[in-house]
Amino acid sequence: MSCINNTPARYHPVQHGLLLVLLFTSFLVQADDSSHWQQIARQIGDSITQAEQHYAAGKVKDARSAVVQAYFSQFEDSKMEAAMRMELGAKHTWQVEKSFGRLRNAIKNGASTKETASIAEEIRTNIAIDAKKLDAAGISPQVFEVNQ
Questions:
Q1: Mean pLDDT by 10 residues, the chain (148 residues)
Q2: Helix (H) or strand (E) holding 8
Q3: Measured between alpha carbons, how far is 52 from 59 in angstroms, rounded to an integer?
Q4: How far apart are CA 54 and CA 93, in angstroms?
Q5: Is the pTM higher than 0.90?
Q6: Torsion sign across C-alpha atoms 126, 129, 132, 138
Q7: In whole angstroms, what is the distance from residue 123 CA to residue 103 CA?
Q8: Which positions ≥6 away from 42 have C-beta within 8 Å?
Q9: CA torsion sign, 129 to 133 to 138 to 143?
Q10: Which domains can be identified in the chain, with CATH numbers?
C-alpha cells in the first residue's frame, strides 16, 4: 500500500466501482452520439416501409401520411435536413427531398407498387448513406439548437 503524508492510502472498492460505471456510461453516451444520424435514418426508413405496406394494402391516405411523417416529423424535425445541407450540400439535399415528394405523388396518383417500392428503396438507401457520412463527419445533433 502506498503512503501519502505518512498516511496509508485506502482502497475503496465502492469508489473504484463508481469510477468504472461513470467511465462506461460516458463511453456509451459517446458511442450513441456517433450513430445519431444512422438512428434517425432507421426511423425514416421504418416510416417509408410503413408507407409501402399501407399502399400495398390499399390504404392510400395512411401511406401518404407515413411519407409526410417520415419527411416532416423525422427528416426535418431531427435537423437531418439541415445537417445534410451543411455537410453534403444543398443540391444533394434537394435531390433527397424531391424523392420524398416523388413517393408521395406516386402514391397519390395510383402508381404501381413496383414504382413506389423503387422510390421507397431509393429514399432508404440514400438516407442511410447520408446518415453514415454525417456520423463519420461528427456532425452533432445539437449543432442546430438555438443559443448554441
A1: 54 46 40 82 98 98 97 95 95 97 97 98 98 96 66
A2: strand 7-8
A3: 10
A4: 26
A5: no
A6: negative
A7: 9
A8: 128
A9: negative
A10: 35-137 (1.20.120)
